[in-house]
Design brief:
Length: about 375
């Protein structure tokens, strides 16, 4: 049985899978879930750390309620989206305060949401920027057990070009053994644009990948980013549990089938699965109860050296057009003061102050080059200059 936002429907049971995970009961179904939280962004103008943490506490009240809702649905695990606490924009404009605020905010998140989950004996996956003990900031996913205690964390290995200006890259893809979920891995947002990330987890034995995100699995037009999520699950024969902010949360089977989708703000999506099953597949010559048995023996790693070359030939062919530092500055400001400046320029158009509007949009193009502000400002300039 699967359900979407309270609506239930019957689906065919998973076909027999591998018995290579003796810790998982072959007949036990577990309810895996994700939530598509509505935006709860903390005001980037706040400079007092105590005010920021007070805003974090306010968000946590709402998130605790979501945990309780998932518990009432009988969920065994709940995944929250990337930037669970809503500190992304604030962090971008207040990096100097991050060492004081982020560790305290994350500690509160783990403590309070962990206690909420413990009441329901439910695993949790959370995500937030964190200043680690080495002094560097990492985009981090946390796995909490049924007692609300952290049993593992993952540092995002592939941050975007702009994100990496203020965050360090993780260096590994850990997996975590559980007694009932099987072997668990986590990835964050842009990670999944790179096929190698999910493959690394799959090769390490991951049965389920939990995916806190604010984006899809590919860069392109239309729904390609969402369809790529199905491909990542199917090409690695893993369950993929996607927690999106706003919309798009879903559970995907090892065959790439979308088992269920969330609906509406703070909608919870869940599916009942057995982590050790659902992988029966093959071709005309051979069928396997768990296709991983063949797939990962049919690889030819000795031919893949290019994948680990830190400077492949393509980098000389297509040099980057923007420094990481400038990309980071633009990304932080686009989401905060950039939006305000764009609205101010739009107000000049409405006031029919054409010359001033042209000057404002020209400044915006220069300041936010390559961003949506640059692209839309160019459209406005074309219109204004043709009047």
């Amino acid at each position: 049985m699967i359900a979407v936002s309270g609506l239930s429907m019957t689906v065919a049971a998973d076909e027999a899978g591998s018995d290579t995970q003796p810790a998982v009961d072959e007949n036990q179904l577990l309810r895996v879930a994700a939530v598509q939280t509505k935006p709860r962004m903390i005001d980037w103008r706040l400079r007092d750390p105590q005010q920021v943490l007070a805003a974090v506490d306010k968000n946590l009240v709402a998130l605790e309620s979501i945990v309780d809702d998932a518990g009432d649905l009988g969920c065994d695990v709940l995944t929250f989206p990337e930037d669970t606490l809503g500190l992304l924009n604030w962090h971008g404009m207040n990096e100097q305060l991050a060492p004081e605020v982020l560790p305290a905010a994350v500690a509160r998140m783990i403590n309070r949401l962990g206690k909420a989950a413990e009441k329901h004996q439910m695993y949790l996956v959370l995500c937030s920027d964190l200043v680690e003990s080495d002094g560097d900031t990492y985009n981090t996913a946390f796995l909490l057990d049924r007692a609300g205690k952290e049993i593992g964390r993952y540092h995002k290995v592939c941050p975007t070009w702009s994100e990496a200006a203020s965050r360090k890259r993780g260096q590994s893809f850990p997996v975590f053994q559980t007694s009932d979920l099987g072997t668990v891995g986590m990835l964050i947002c842009y990670d999944l644009v790179f096929p190698e990330t999910a493959r690394c987890l799959a090769l390490s034995g991951a049965d389920i990948i939990f995916f806190p995100t604010m984006g899809g699995g590919a860069v392109g037009d239309g729904d390609i980013g969402m369809q790529a999520l199905r491909v990542r699950a199917a090409e690695n024969h893993v369950y993929l549990v996607v927690a999106f902010r706003g919309s798009g949360a879903m559970v995907i089977s090892p065959r790439g089938e979308i088992l269920s989708r969330a609906e509406g703000p703070d909608g919870i999506v869940y599916a009942d699965i057995n982590p050790s099953q659902g992988r029966r597949s093959g071709d005309a010559m051979n069928i396997q109860s768990d296709m991983r048995a063949r797939l990962f023996r049919e690889r030819n790693p000795s031919a893949f050296a290019m994948l680990t070359d830190p400077h492949p030939p393509i980098l000389d062919k297509v040099p980057i057009e923007i420094s990481q530092q400038e990309a980071g500055r633009i990304a932080s400001e686009v989401l905060t003061i950039g939006e305000e400046e764009f609205r101010q320029a739009e107000s000049l158009v409405r006031a029919e102050k054409t010359a001033e509007a042209i000057e404002a949009f020209a400044r915006l193009r220069k300041k936010y080059r390559g961003s949506w502000i640059d692209r839309v400002a160019q459209e406005r300039l074309t219109t204004l200059r043709n009047k």
